[in-house]
What we know:
By secondary structure, the chain is an alpha+beta fold.
Amino acid sequence: xxxxxxxxxxxxxxxxxxxxxxxxxxxxxxxxxxxxxxxxxxxxxxxxxxxxxxxxxxxxxxxxxxxxxxxxxxxxxxxxxxxxxxxxxxxxxxxxxxxxxxxxxxxxxxxxxxxxxxxxxxxxxxxxxxxxxxxxxxxxxxxxxxxxxxxxxxxxxxxxxxxxxxxxxxxxxxxxxxxxxxxxxxxxxxxxxxxxxxxxxxxxxxxxxxxxxxxxxxxxxxxxxxxxxxxxxxxxxxxxxxxxxxxxxxxxxxxxxxxxxxxxxxxxxxxxxxxxxxxxxxxxxxxxxxxxxxxxxxxxxxxxxxxxxxxxxxxxxxxxxxxxxxxxxxxxxxxxxxxxxxxxxxxxxxxxxxxxxxxxxxxxxxxxxxxxxxxxxxxxxxxxxxxxxxxxxx
Length: 394
């Protein structure tokens, strides 16, 4: 947001109402605006804090002045008239001018302070992840998808593999007749740290693969089931087929569906696997335990237990697929997401509380410094960035 736009906000009654929580409609309006413009969240939050701080300062000065007048009355002294030229006379116009000038000055001061003190301001910022993945064919050949051109990139048996203009990998089977007793070849698509990719499977099911994740699948589905292997995290939109259930194996867990939308997060460095259902129904099986989910529920599976959350935060679960971070977890979990997407190593120093929680959203396509600055607004945590290492400090 430009400086002149920030100045104009200070003239808007709706923005001041938002700052002081005086009008529910204005508060909702600005909260929605921030959701739509996460890149401006830092500046708006700084401005809001400054407005509140200056209002408190103004009120204190007025109270001090009234107290001084009361003391003069009690002492029988003539009341010293308030000079009209005083900046702090309770004139809304004068207060507004002072507020504007001082607020903007403070914004500059705080912004400068952030950039000087923080660490985040290393000369070369770390860019966000992007569409990067490697496709390994059944014969072992590897194709770096971000470097390959659009169009047909491989043919395996009856399967044609195409890279589309919008970055998808699409499988098409030239002959839909069954392959008899032939065993299908398997492909693996792997998104590295800082990568992501979308693939359309031979049955037209769609899979979005998150960073540091891989999916192994046959180039054609035969037999009485469609089975794939997932490591990491992926969002699935599965084509309905009652005769061939779709199964996703992740570590010890198997998710079975007929046709539905769901997200599985099964990273090795997470304490539990999370399967969240958006449409349809799924069956979760793990070491003899089994549960069926309905839309809105989330299964959390660890080595010792399987729990189901009745009302999952679906926006949070799918935020990565939709291109943004929603900070809604504790510090360590949030930093693991940061590490996977920005391909950085994270370490901690000092007495950091790992249960710290953060709020807010930001585009995944902002540089690392922008994401860290949102978290620093809490005042509870700071970061030092050296190369591709992020140190979390108090």
